[in-house]
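Exercise 7 asks you to align residues with tokens for two separate proteins.
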Amino acid sequence: MFDIGAMELLVIVIVAVLVIGPKDMPLAMRSAGRWIGKVRKVSAHFRTGIDAMVREAELEDMEKKWKARNEEIMREHPPTMQTSSGAQASAEAAGSSLIAKDTGAEPHEGARAGGSADPGAAPSDPDTPEKA
């Protein structure tokens, strides 16, 4: 912020000793130190307040973007309504039939439940096809 070199600092110290005097110099330095400390505290408080306002503005902006993107996704992919558990079961059965057609396997009870027909086998991920 302020660029004070060694020569400038030496000139300031010499002028201060001549103007204030060597006897009152420690008191003047203590007072200057207190004032500098107060200025730093006020500056830090001000900076913290500005940073908080910037963060809040960024959060509001991100929330607007997320809300707009969510609305866009909901328009592209509207939610489907299931009225009864029978309709849900028939949708699951239709999904297992489609998986069976893609993989060439026969649909069975385990495929509809999301696991394999063998009770000892580890459950497989429904999104990845099983290897033969």
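Second protein for Exercise 7:
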Amino acid sequence: MKPLPKPLIGLAAAGAATLIAANRVAGAPPDPGVAARAEAAHYSGPWRHGYARVNAVRLHYAELGSGPLVILLHGFPECWYEWRHIIPHLAERFHVVAPDMRGYNWSDKPEGTGSYSASNVSADIAALVEHFGEARTHLVGHDWGGAIAWHFGMYHADRLNKLAVVNAPHPAAFARELKTLDQLSRSLYIVYFQLPILPEASIRLLLRRTLTESARVPGAFSEEALDVYQNAISQPGAATAMLNYYRAAFRTGPAFFEKNRRTITNPTLLLWGMQDFALSPQLTEGLEPWVPDLRVERIQDSGHWLPEEKPRLASDLLLDFLSP
């Protein structure tokens, strides 16, 4: 057998070294200083913390207020803390619960890509409604939390009062827009997320920079918030669990979009920061066939991170919509 050419040996060695380094980054323990600051931030507000055993997972949540139940679902790569500015305003009229979804921060991180399917995560939320002794909830979701909110509206309508989604595409609209070069180019990162180890290392290394530079409102992400998100993604197994939301959806393929076209009849609000770097503004158009009772609010001077870029405006719009 002929020996491998030296260039191939060099490439193989470089690839192996990259994977070893990435594995070390992906599996590194939380930084103690960041962890201490994150802990202080978690307990810096008027909310209470608790845990619920639902659908075979233990979910951490923050809660505040009394009245009709409102559940707030965060996006990637954040956690419950993204709602910190909005919780006190909604709690003036509602019992507000902001969980860490499975795989995130202080919630359980079950193994396996399939554990993070939309149906499994939606079932967590349905069980959480029951945990708080309610028959129904108002549901608000941003980014991946918004994707779960769309799914919840389709498959758990009996548990839902009103639905609000923030910068998260309806599956049918997303399938339509992926046929355009604009949205396809914006979504290529999802293909990268299918790789092993490298995405975990990348998001741990680049989280702070990515959040800060992608926000369209300067200062939207405070150092405290960045500490919280950095510490959350550094929890054992968290980076892989968070990426598994993308992997589970990707591996379902076209069936994901075909299955998730049920009509949502509940009153629905779509809030959209129009300077979103990852999602086309066209995703806010043509939704009436799937969501007939829909109100759309387009915020021109905000990007993807509306709950952190424009928290007061988001609070006011949500209060107006959710109130009787």
